[in-house]
């Protein structure tokens, strides 16, 4: 292990997670934001569903590990919501009830890792069905918003049941202007614009969560802080707090409710 020790933030999920470290991706942006304060660890597996994740949960997140993550951000559901394969064999489809049960087990396992391990679930986002057909052809036949939406709704309901923070990507992305044409590279995976939405939603949850200790980037100490000692100069800590300011949503004003 490289020292000194930092909080670990693990991204766990399917291709939405695996591809999050491309240029402008949400995982890469989080790694940049937390570059002096926490380690962002990628555990993304393209093509996986919640059933696949459950099979390796004990290996990916062993309960006897010396160091447990401070935060795990989880995404599954898009592949689960695909229609069953016509042959009835294989495929990514997981029935909604099983998906919900799998995600419950994943959440409960992660919460049990330590008293200070926090969990955020990302809901399945919408998709551009026409773009999927153009890019993938029959390989993704049947993948649709109509089938995916119940999985997003079920996951957010589950979050409220098991005290896990949930991020509603289904609606957050659709609130953007021209989202169908600006948020996807292939109808499924995120452009830099969509990734920026994901990052802002994550930072909002982390900032507003009543977690002790806080995992907000401004609450974590900068590793090996440096000050040039020059009068009227910005310290490194000041620079770290300001360079990603555009991604921080403004705090609620007087009388504004927090969701």
UniProtKB/TrEMBL annotation:
The keyword Transcription regulation does not apply. It comes from the Eukaryota. Residues 11-194 form the SGNH hydrolase-type esterase domain. One of its GO terms (molecular function) is hydrolase activity. One of its GO terms (biological process) is lipid catabolic process. InterPro entries: Iah1-like (IPR045136), SGNH_hydro (IPR013830), SGNH_hydro_sf (IPR036514). Pfam families: Lipase_GDSL_2. Keywords: Hydrolase, Lipid degradation, Lipid metabolism. Coiled coil: none annotated. Belongs to the 'GDSL' lipolytic enzyme family. PANTHER family: ISOAMYL ACETATE-HYDROLYZING ESTERASE 1 (PTHR14209), SGNH HYDROLASE-TYPE ESTERASE DOMAIN-CONTAINING PROTEIN (PTHR14209:SF37). This is GDSL esterase/lipase At2g38180 isoform X2.
């Amino acid at each position: 292990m490289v020292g000194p020790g930092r909080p670990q933030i693990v991204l766990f999920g399917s291709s939405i997670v695996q591809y999050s470290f491309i240029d402008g991706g949400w995982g890469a942006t989080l790694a940049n934001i937390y570059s002096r304060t926490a380690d962002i660890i990628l555990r993304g597996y393209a093509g996986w569903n919640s059933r696949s994740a459950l099979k390796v949960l004990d290996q990916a997140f062993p309960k006897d590990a010396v160091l447990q993550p401070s935060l795990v951000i989880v995404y599954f559901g898009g592949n689960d919501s695909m229609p069953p394969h016509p042959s009835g064999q294989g495929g990514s489809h997981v029935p909604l009830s099983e998906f919900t049960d799998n995600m419950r087990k994943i959440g409960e396992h992660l919460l049990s890792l330590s008293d200070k391990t926090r969990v955020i679930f990302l809901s399945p986002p919408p998709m551009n069905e026409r773009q999927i057909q153009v890019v993938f052809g029959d390989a993704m036949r049947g993948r649709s918003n109509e089938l995916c939406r119940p999985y997003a709704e079920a996951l957010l309901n589950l979050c409220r049941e098991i005290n896990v923070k949930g991020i509603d990507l289904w609606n957050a992305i659709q609130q953007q202007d021209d989202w169908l044409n600006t948020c996807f590279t292939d109808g499924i995976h995120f452009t830099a614009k969509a990734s920026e939405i994901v990052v802002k939603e994550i930072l909002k949850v982390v900032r507003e969560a009543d977690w002790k200790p806080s995992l907000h980037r401004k609450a974590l100490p900068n590793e090996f802080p440096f000050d040039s000692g020059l009068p009227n100069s910005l310290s490194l800590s000041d620079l770290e707090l300001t360079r990603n300011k555009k991604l921080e949503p403004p705090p609620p004003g007087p009388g504004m409710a927090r969701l």
